[in-house]
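Re: that backbone. Tokens:
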């Protein structure tokens, strides 16, 4: 997980304050939520539960309707309610924290008599760690639509920022795995080079497998090869454009691409700020030099007038 600045965390909080996410399998895997270590704590006891959804204002948990957690949470006199979140940062590192709240709603889960969904409204702003995790996820989904066509040329620098281990990949076309080289990536597709004939690749369904690190994973992207062109001077090598299926694109891939685009954006803004500061400093220096020149000119004029006055007085005395 990257380290967000306090300004970025505040931006996430302001922008997505009321946005609720439901913890699907894809989301749980992408953000590293550990469901086995989620529990609700109150009345000096703690019980495992399932986090169904969360925002920065509240969370909805699922508990057994006949268990101790339900009995405690349905009691209006219960205080000291805390929901524990736990995320897997790496293979050996966990990040966990509590969020304090109070019960604001209890309803059966999908009309079940055995399960209940309980809304825990937070009594204060949640920890920055939760804001960062959820904020990155929501930002990635937003940018996957808004910046879907921005291309990332694959080189040593972009591989590092993407977390892509290598540009070599596997593409499966008509159930046949082929080695390929990735030339560029975006939220919506990729350009790859491989051995083959264009007429046997165009408009064919395909699956592109990319290897990433941090976390270490192989991400499969499903889609269609929409165009294939021969490489100049070669009859057996083609450059293919692949369009990903938006509904099948894993969230973990969106997070990698979004991290790259936001990092580049920050660099561009930093460079723009430096240029603006340099221009402002140059303008201030020019203004100061102009004032000095004007002051010097004024002094010279005053001296000339004094000389004229002295000459005039001398003539009058004669």
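Recovered sequence:
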């Amino acid at each position: 997980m990257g380290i967000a600045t306090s300004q970025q965390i505040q931006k996430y909080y302001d922008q997505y304050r009321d946005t609720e996410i439901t913890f699907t399998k894809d989301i749980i895997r992408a953000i590293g939520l550990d469901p086995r270590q989620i529990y609700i704590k109150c009345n000096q006891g703690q019980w495992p539960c399932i986090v169904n959804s969360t925002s920065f204002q509240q969370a909805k948990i699922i508990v057994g309707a006949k268990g101790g957690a339900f009995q405690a949470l349905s009691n209006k006199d219960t205080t000291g309610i805390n929901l524990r979140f736990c995320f897997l940062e790496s293979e050996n590192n966990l990040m966990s924290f509590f969020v304090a709240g109070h019960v604001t709603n209890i309803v059966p889960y999908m009309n079940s008599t055995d399960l209940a969904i309980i809304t825990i409204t937070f009594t204060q702003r949640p920890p920055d760690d939760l804001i960062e995790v959820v904020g990155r996820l929501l930002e990635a989904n937003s940018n996957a639509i808004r910046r879907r066509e921005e291309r990332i040329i694959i080189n040593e620098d972009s591989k590092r920022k993407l977390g892509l281990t290598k540009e070599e990949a596997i593409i499966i076309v008509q159930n046949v795995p082929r080695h390929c080289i990735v030339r560029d990536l975006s939220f919506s597709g990729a350009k790859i080079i491989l051995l083959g004939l264009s007429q046997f690749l165009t408009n064919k369904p395909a699956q592109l497998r990319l290897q990433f690190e941090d976390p270490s994973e192989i991400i499969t992207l499903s889609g269609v090869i929409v165009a294939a062109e021969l490489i100049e001077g070669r009859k057996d090598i083609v450059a293919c454009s692949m369009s990903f299926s938006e509904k099948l694109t894993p969230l973990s891939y969106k997070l990698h691409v979004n991290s790259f685009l936001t990092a580049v954006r920050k660099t561009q803004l930093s460079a723009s700020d430096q240029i603006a500061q340099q221009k402002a400093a140059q303008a201030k220096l020019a203004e100061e030099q102009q004032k000095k020149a004007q002051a010097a000119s004024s002094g010279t004029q005053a001296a000339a007038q004094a000389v004229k006055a002295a000459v005039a007085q001398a003539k009058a005395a004669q």
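The chain has a mean pLDDT of 88. Residues 122 and 308 are 83 Å apart (CA to CA).
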